[in-house]
Amino acid sequence: MEKVLARRYRPQTFDEVIGQEAVVRTLENALAAGRVGHGFIFSGHRGIGKTTVARILAKAMNCRRAPGPTPTPCGECESCREIREGNSVDVIEIDAASNRGIDEIRALRESVRYRPARDRYKFYILDEAHQLTDDAFNALLKTLEEPPEWAIFVLATTEPEALPATIRSRCQHFAFRAVSYARIVERLRQICQAEGIAAEDEALGLIAAAGEGSLRDALSLLDQALAYGAGALRAEMVRALLGRVSSQALGEMMAAVADGNSREVLERADAFLAAGASPAQICQQTVGMIRNMLMCRVAGAESELLALSDTERKATAAAAERFGEEDLTRFLQILLRTAADLRFAQEPRLHLELGLVKLVQARRLASIEDVLASLGAEQKKTPHDATGSGAAAAAGGGGSRAGGGAGRETPPSARFAPEADAPGEENAAAPERAAATEPPAPAGDPARAKVLARLEELKRTSLLSVLQPAVWTWAERRLELRFAGEAAALAPLAKQDSILRELREVCRVTLGFAPEIEVRVVEVPGPAAPAPATDGTPAAERAARHPALRALREHVPGHVLRTIELSE
Fold it and tell me: Cα separation of 507 and 455, whole Å?
């Protein structure tokens, strides 16, 4: 029977070891200087070369063609061949997971007492050493501290913290690193060339990513993929084997999120499920893509933080342009919570769909800190308003947090619903307040009309309420938004990065370009504002007409609990 790729291409010398340069260099220098210890701990991720390096070290210590320990074993002598094949009488590999008791360690201690049968040193390689019992560790302790001069121990483990401190203090600890994505892809390409296999770069990238830093896992997947594809290696075939969704399809789903199209997002998810992907797999891949999009925004598309092929890198960078760092951070918070829910969910599809819909809703949320800060700044700037000075309203209820933002979209008819504590006053003021928020007629500005119509189509009512009262002035590819009078209270909201970014994106889609946007507050000339009018006008009505309260209610739904005169 032919050997699998992971065994056929197992490194046989230190030079062939991939991704463990620090470990290899230290061992080579120790061998050259004759300062090799008697006890080692090799720790790290699965499938990254711990046992392989232990075998190479055994060959380096026992190579018969060298007069003593050497960093370059020949690989051809009887000792090197037997160690390579795993049948050397003086190199004993023990699976500590199944030989974990004190009786097995007592037998090991007994065999250590005798000299090697043929080689210079007896090597004991304990794989998964953290599985040993406490009694077994105690039995091994004295032998590790004062072993015979011909005995060397290597404890390989994926959980070094599980080893007793008394064991760790008696050994040299080498921490092996996960192999990088680029190194795994390079190694897979070399093996495919050696085997005469035509492989697509994207297919190799998918296998390398699925290996998650383990070269052995990647080689096992390569073996499986070659068997599935009858010797060929194509990206579509690897995706089908791994049950993964294509990056292009995920990018199209994220484009639907950017457009606020919940229906298309759910239809995409349904297509993924129908193709055989599980809800957990879809969620995991979406998290991975959003993470890569965030890395594109933070570090750039060429960053080494992106473990992607060139094709996927370009697609991810293009998708990231439609979102800000704040958006992507919110998305990750939502989907990480969704992934945790999916582990124990009885209706995994429902949890996945709910998480995806939350992505669409998250873009409509404004940070409550930003809203309150902007309103506070405006209140400091204009402490007395001609129509609403002298009265303050305490609002409560209705706000909710989701994915790091605050505020929910509410129908226009519900934003100025009558309040429970003063139905007469609120009903009387409703027509006047509704009229105050009506936008100017956009007939003279077709560009403005197109942009506002697109926002209405996307149901971005909160953004509309901020942008409609402004006067729009175009100068080539530059847009100036001017706020005057009561509308000046909305200027701090319009200056927020999230609003400007979304407005530029909508302009790009509807007008064909993304303008530079400037927000200005225009002072309205006229006599000084009169003293607060309290003669006959109810405080609740004056407070309800105040632009700061109206803007706050656009973002944070709630109801007025009570209204008082500030003079009181």
Answer: 10
